[in-house]
Design goal:
The chain is mainly alpha-helical and 263 residues long. The protein is 62% helix and 2% strand. It has a two-stranded antiparallel sheet with strand order 1-2. The protein starts with a helix and ends in a 16-residue tail after the last helix.
Length: 263
């Protein structure tokens, strides 16, 4: 297997050591994530461990990657154009099912407002949000629920299919699409425990901890989405990746791993 070669692409990559310490129970999931890592890095212009392409071919791939990055600085409408392409529908649905599973905190198969509150409390209880930001976060999440799902009731339960239908509506509506990322800055502030404006891999583990995901998942996902390999995610990078997860159908986008391994 070419794991070591793949992860040497990032100077701070530690995914190889994670694999050595992972339990047998997590090995299959980690292997799939690493395969995703390999495919995305290959799409970005990096050679695989078994590649025998010449140096000139690699240079052409890197030039193509740089152009792709420059073209990716787009507004919501351009990002939506990525979504409305006819391919990648089932992949997008897979991502939305994954996020529904994250929102379903008690894992009963449906999402309730109680699930929303539990998730919000996990981030607030880290203690890094100011009282003002914590209240803003709670208010925003309540407003999001009421706008999209109606009344706050123990009987108002959102199934996976309902969530998929709602997300189709959200990204098809320009005004709703522009608000899809409004909650992300609060998540960033909540896990940026030293308040330096960037998230390290250790802080990203806090993010995954709040999502109910493992540190091993966090390590693999972080090294995938840290496209410039500097070991940090700025607020802008964090929000861009989180937003792109919802809008893009492109299976090669690193943002597919922003919320952890896909189900």
């Amino acid at each position: 297997m070419a794991f070591n070669t793949l992860f040497k692409l990032c100077a701070r990559s530690s995914a190889s050591s994670v694999l050595k310490s992972a339990s047998a129970r997590n090995a299959a999931a980690l292997y799939q994530q690493i395969q995703d890592f390999s495919s995305v890095k290959a799409a970005q212009g990096y050679p695989s461990a078994s590649a025998s392409a010449s140096a000139s071919s690699a240079n052409l791939q890197n030039k193509s990657h740089r152009k792709e990055l420059s073209d990716s600085d787009s507004d919501s409408d351009t990002e939506f154009d990525t979504y409305v392409k006819k391919d990648g529908v089932e992949f997008w649905r897979r991502k939305m099912r994954t996020f529904h599973g994250i929102l379903d905190i008690n894992k009963d198969g449906v999402v309730s407002y109680d699930d929303y509150q539990l998730l919000v409390n996990r981030f607030i209880n880290l203690g890094h949000l100011s009282p003002k930001h914590a209240q803003e976060f709670r208010t925003l999440i309540q407003k999001m629920w009421e706008e999209r799902w109606g009344s706050i009731s123990e009987y108002n339960l959102i199934t996976t299919e309902q969530y998929l239908e709602d997300m189709h509506h959200v990204i098809g509506d320009k005004s709703l699409r522009k608000k899809i990322h409004y909650f992300l800055p609060y998540l960033f502030k909540a896990v940026d425990n030293d308040k330096d404006g960037s998230i390290t891999i250790e802080e990203f583990k806090l993010f995954f901890q709040c999502l109910g995901l493992s540190s091993e998942d966090a390590v693999v996902s972080f090294h995938l989405i840290d496209e410039n390999c500097d070991g940090n995610l700025s607020s802008e990078e964090f929000v861009k990746l989180g937003k792109e997860f919802f809008l893009s159908r492109d299976q090669k986008k690193p943002s597919k791993m922003f919320w952890g391994p896909l189900i």
